[in-house]
What does this fold into?
Amino acid sequence: QVQLVESGGGLVQAGGSLRLSCAASGYTFSSYGMGWFRQAPGKEREFVAAINWGGGARYYADSVKGRFTISRDNAKNTVYLQINSLKPEDTAVYYCATEIRRAYGPPHLRDSEYDTWGQGTQVTVSS
It folds into this structure.
């Protein structure tokens, strides 16, 4: 079955960096776009970044532009989120997601457009 497993979260001081990974299995990873979202306590889930099937198109939320980088390795069935210059407001559970209804489609920016989610990885940034 289709499965997404995030890893790489943790506790880090403000200004630090983390690299989140999302390992995919159960489908043809290289044919579908991927997205990262996050949900802070008491807040709604929000879009962070998305990448298309080939990696040539990337989109970011304004709040993370210049600090976060999404990438993918289709040979390893993995998508990454490099997070630099972390701020306390980046504290959240980070989720990766994919939409496998349409191959070679554009990356999505809304969570309602994704149909498969990982379990999330916690990122906590101390001030």
